[in-house]
Amino acid sequence: MKKFKKVISSLMASALVVSMLAGCTDAASTETTDAQAQPAQEASSSSDNGATFKIGAIGPLTGGAAAYGNAVCNAAELAVEDINAAGGINGYQVEYNKEDDELNAEKSVNAYNTLKDWGMQILVGSTTSACSIAVSEYTKADNMFQLTPSGSAEECVTYDNVFRVCFSDPNQGIASAQYIADHNLATKIGIIYDSSDVYSNGIYQKFAEEAKNKNLEIVSAEAFTQDNNTDFSVQLQKAKDAGADLVFLPIYYKDASLILTQANTMGYAPTFFGVDGMDGILTVENFDTKLAEGVMLLTPFAADATDDLTVNFVKKYEEKYGETPNQFAADAYDAVFIIKQAIEAKGATPDMSTADLCEALKTAMTEIEAAGLTSSKMTWDASGEPNKEPKAVVIKDGAYVSAE
User: Fold this and answer.
1) Cα separations (Å) of 307 from 187, 315, 319?
2) What is the arithmetic mean of pLDDT over 103-127?
C-alpha cells in the first residue's frame, strides 16, 4: 500500500475560489491542451501495422446511478473519438470499449474481466468508489494502469497503479466546510448523511472536523441508511427546530431529491449544499427541478463556462448524447486526455505489454502537468491523488452556473 497524501492544504490555498487552476507551462501539457482545444482533424495514418491502444471504461450504465456511469463512459468515448480524429496517440489510433457494472462491485469485476478478454490495456474506471476498489485488486494483480475519473474513496488509490482525477472524500468534506466559512454562507448548519455509505460518512466526518476549525456551528447531524431512505421528515425537523440556515448533504442525488421535496412540503427552505454526489439531481425522474433552485455543490466543472475547451466539449456532447454533460463526464474526458499525455511523455506504443505500459504511465503521472475541463493545472505524485483546486456551482433556472 502506498502512503496517502494529504493535499487539502494546497487545494485550499486560494480559499476555494470558484475557478479553474492556472494553465500548464511544460511542452507536454501544452500539447495535450492544444489537442483538446483544436477542432477534429483527419486521423493520422502513421500506424501502418494496425496496432492500437485499447482503453476500456466501466460504470453503472443502468440502474439508480446510471447518470454517473453513462456520463463517464460517454465522455470517455467522445475523448477517444477526438483523439483519433486528431491523429491518435504517438501516431496510433485508440480502440474503446465500455461495460456496465450496475453499481455492483462483483459485476464491476466481471466487467473488468470482459474488457481484459477484449484486450484492454488501460482502464478508465470504475466510476463509483466501491466498484473501483474491487476492480483495483485485479488491476494490481495484472499490473494494469487504472485511472478512475470519479472513484473518491481514499481506498480507491491504495495501489501504485491506480490514480484518480476527482478529489477524495476527505478532501470534499474539508473543502466544503472551508468554502461555507470563507463565503459566509451560514451561521448554523444541519447535516443529513448516509451512515451506511462509506462515501457519505467519510465526507461527513471530515466536514465536521473542519467545521470546528472554521468556527462553524453544527446544530444537528442526523443519519439515515439505505434501509430507511424514503422519509427524511425527522432529520429535516431537527435541523429546522435547531435553526439551521444551511443543510449540508454529503449524499447522492436521488436521496437529495427526496429531501428537497419533503423540505418544501414542510415549509423549510434553508440553503442546501452538496458535493459531487449531488450532481445528477436535475435528471431525477418526476422530481420538480424548481425545488433545486439555489442548491449549491462543489464540483470541478460548470457546463456554462465560456472557455473554448468547455464550450466545444459541451456542444459536441449535447449533439452526440442529447443532454448537457455533468462533472462526471468532464472528469472522464480529462482522464482520457491525461492518459494520452502520459503515454506521449514516455513514447509508449501499443505493442508494449500491459505491465510495461503500466510502469511507464505510473512514472509519467508523477512528472506531467495536465490541463483540462476540470482544472487548468493538475499534478500527481505517487499517492495517486490529484493536486488541483475545487470550485462551486449553484443551480439557477434548472442549470448549473458558476457560483462566482
Assistant:
1) 35, 12, 18
2) 98
